[in-house]
Design a protein that fits this description.
heterodimer, A: alpha+beta, 8-stranded antiparallel beta sheet, B: alpha+beta, about 50% helix, about 15% strand
């Protein structure tokens, strides 16, 4: 049996600190607002299923008669839904801050520590829920869909995978009380495994496909923005890839994030009191680097160092592993 | 995306029933048919949508990577055969194919869940939807004719029922006083049925509910009407 292609990051021992969120009613002058402009480069093929089947010729994939499709724009460019990105990024943000889970299955309710149950009270939110949202509370960040910069896509065969079987794997639970240990993350792999004989034919964003997207943020503290930038792999000491979509256990779904620029409204009063909005203050190059380092510095003490170290080791862009070929 | 809709002719209904009965009889998973319908909808704006659809159903049979269980190949095979049998002649009319398949999927669920005994399955020969004259000639002799006659009789009966139902749909006016029977009382919600009509009305009667009983005859005054002429609110006299 191959070694497991994932690792569990334990929950922190301290319960999360719940606070009132910043709210959307006003742009607080002491907080940060703006837009992150990101480039996502595919490291190992990405497939995010729509549930829709099509002929290969319909989506411009040669050599595969019929396949599972990905979402595309009306002009045929591949698209990664903002919700998929948000889910992946939130999971990482939760893991490195002292946060609750975003969602849970009622089946495992009793096995999840009570302090990690999703936030239900919008006045008392954990760090991740304050930024990404919770029940009755819209978050402070908005994700745009990531659109491929060029047309075309590739095809591949996704190897058959078993469903997660936590009940059959003791490694998921603590020996003493049977409670869930922590959050599960799949390793980054050198290449995506394809199984042309038994696999499911899929439309994929092949290696080196480039996507562009934006994340809008408002009322974030420097620590919160710093944590978001760390999750996006902008901390040189803890570089990380994103893992999105299907086939993560067999190496699919790695994305390298590059931060192109940050736009911030230069003067909030001007921004909302004029018909023609003034030009935003754009941070690029050295100014951008300095700003990013400043925010990441502010996140020290907010991010849990042990959790960050472990997550960066799992999602490292340099220490890549071989995907498991057999049953794991 | 195709936004055209078409009214189904009796012949097209026969096709929908035929597809549904065949698939229900063979216990085919209707969700698999729905996937094929979703595909047809996604390509329906192309001029060759019909032929693409049949190529798609054919490829589903051949592509083993999409088979999830031992039953899936059988489902795909039957869907492919049935669609080709019933819809091949309509392949230049994707909007009509979509309507027929959409109803076929709903009817297949109805036949499966309702446990309705499936009689003789309508033959695909009558697949010329707007060709009423040719249709009679194309129906096979013998048992096929008998089932066709039965179905026509059923259709006639259904039309008569519909006419009676329409007749019972009374037209109301604001201020009109009507006799009604109380058919149900749930908490403070009382349901009235206006006499000699199909009209039922449920509304809250917090002060009167306690003193009323099911079956009691009462008089109501129409206070307001909906856009389609049905009663929106009535006052218990």
């Amino acid at each position: 049996m191959s070694p497991k292609p994932y690792e569990l990051i334990p929950f922190p021992t301290q319960p999360p600190k719940l606070e009132r969120p910043a709210g959307h009613a006003q742009f607080h002058p002491d907080r940060l607002h703006g837009t992150l402009f990101l480039t996502l480069t595919v490291q190992t093929a990405v497939h995010i299923s729509t549930g829709h089947l099509a002929l290969g010729s319909d989506v411009g994939v040669k050599g595969i008669p019929v396949l599972k499709t990905m979402t595309t724009t009306p002009n045929g460019r591949l698209k990664i839904q903002g919700s998929s990105l948000k889910g992946a990024i939130r999971a990482m943000y939760e893991a490195i801050t002292n946060s609750t889970l975003a969602v849970m299955t009622s089946r495992y309710r009793n096995r999840i520590p009570p302090e990690r149950h999703p936030c239900r009270n919008k006045e008392q939110l954990c760090p991740a829920s304050r930024v990404f949202g919770a029940l009755n509370w819209q978050g402070l960040v908005e994700f745009r869909d990531a659109i491929a910069t060029s047309a075309g896509s590739g095809g591949g065969s996704l190897p058959p995978l078993y469903r997660p079987r936590p009940d059959q794997c003791k490694a998921y639970f603590q020996k003493e009380n049977g409670r869930v240990i922590g959050r599960k993350f799949y390793y980054t792999h050198r290449n995506a495994l394809q199984d042309s004989s038994r696999g499911t034919p899929t439309q994929q964003a092949i290696q080196n496909t480039v996507f562009k997207t934006q994340i809008h943020f408002k009322n974030l503290t420097p620590a919160e923005l710093g944590t978001l930038l760390t999750v996006l792999g902008q901390d040189p000491k803890h570089s990380m890839l994103l893992k999105v979509g299907g086939g993560k256990p067999v190496g699919l779904g790695s994305l390298q994030v590059t931060l192109d620029k940050i736009e911030r409204p230069g003067n909030l009063k001007d921004r909302y009191s004029r018909y023609d909005p003034p030009e935003a203050d754009t941070l690029e190059g050295k100014r951008l680097q300095a700003f990013v380092q400043e925010q990441i510095g502010a996140a020290q003490g907010y991010i849990l160092p042990e959790q960050l170290k472990r997550l960066a080791a799992i999602l490292s862009p340099t220490a890549l592993r071989e995907p498991p070929t057999g049953v794991y | 995306m195709l936004s055209d809709t078409v009214d189904l002719s009796p012949q097209s209904w026969d096709l929908a029933h035929g597809i549904a009965m065949t698939l229900a009889k063979e216990r085919v998973d209707v969700d698999e048919l729905s996937k094929c319908i979703a595909y047809l909808r996604s390509v329906a704006h192309h001029p060759d949508a019909g032929s693409r659809f049949f190529r798609f159903t054919g490829e589903l049979v051949r592509e083993t990577g999409l088979h999830r269980s031992n039953e899936t190949p059988r489902y795909y095979r039957l869907i492919d055969q049935t669609c080709k049998k019933y819809l091949q002649s309509l392949q230049d009319r994707p909007a009509e194919m979509l309507q027929i398949l959409g109803w076929a999927a709903r009817l297949a669920r109805y036949y499966k869940d309702g446990g309705v005994p499936i009689g003789e399955i309508p033959p695909p020969q009558g697949s010329q939807p707007n060709d009423n004259s040719g249709r009679k000639d194309s129906v096979p002799q013998g048992a096929g004719n008998k089932s066709q006659d039965d179905r026509q009789q059923q259709n006639h009966q259904h039309q008569q029922d519909q006419a009676q139902h329409q007749a019972r749909k009374a037209r109301f006016q604001t201020g009109q006083k009507l006799k009604a029977t109380i058919t149900n009382i749930k908490g403070n919600e009382v349901t009235f049925q206006i006499l000699d009509t199909d009209t039922k009305l449920t509304q809250k009667e917090p002060k009167r509910a306690g003193s009323l009983s099911v079956g009691q005859e009462v008089q109501v005054e129409v206070l307001g009407l909906k856009e389609d002429g049905r009663i929106r609110k009535a006052k218990l006299l």
